[in-house]
Amino acid sequence: MNLSGLTGPLGMALAGFFAIMNPIANTPIFISVTAGDDRATKRAVARRSLFVAFLIIAVTVVAGNQIFRLFDITLGTLRITGGLLVVLIGFHMLQGSGSDVHTPSEADVESTEQAQLDVAVSPLAIPILAGPGTIATAMSLAAGGWAHVVVTLVAFTVICLVTYVCFLESDRLVDFLGQNGLNVITRLMGLIVASIGTGMVLAGLGLHAAS
Fold first, then answer.
1. What is the rounded CA–CA span in Å between residue 57 and residue 136?
2. d(CA 126, CA 119)
3. What share of the chain is helix, strand, coil (3-state, %, to 5)?
4. Is the N-terminal amide bond of 127 cis, ω within 30° of 0?
5. Could you give the CA distance from residue 167 to residue 119 in angstroms, rounded to a whole number?
6. What is the Cα–Cα distance from 130 to 117, expressed in whole angstroms?
7. pLDDT tens readout for residues 41-69
């Protein structure tokens, strides 16, 4: 395996996952769905949500080629479709609001009052951490072969660890940044997400963005 040749893809994967998962901006959501829980329960919810999200992405990237063949989907088609979805999510983030596909519904939030640990699966793991945009990004990044699958999983693991730290230190993080700081980060991440999505579309069309 040519590790030097994978440095670029690894950096892109880290940036893409960090931007679209947005651990910092998602931290207030974690606080809201675990309000009233003790620290041990919050830790358990964070671990379970990230474990489920990792399983979803791992299955997606490993089974990607089989899925492509089953539905006769080409790499270019996947990159264009996934890129358009990622651009849409980035656009919503630029407006200072979360995209519907990554934002929990009122029913999801209300259900957390009934079962504390259930929020780890919904809405945290799905759709916040491993939503359509994250899945589309992962499948596109991993579509180049097994080396890219490994790079994608390594990058996603790193971002999961960062997210775990943000969740555990959620109260301190939000107090430090404030609402204005979170809004700025969300818009910045939105610009990065939209740019990555545009790059995916251009790659699907066989074009390259000018440096």
1. 10
2. 9
3. 85, 0, 15
4. yes
5. 13
6. 17
7. 889 999 999 999 999 999 988 887 677 77
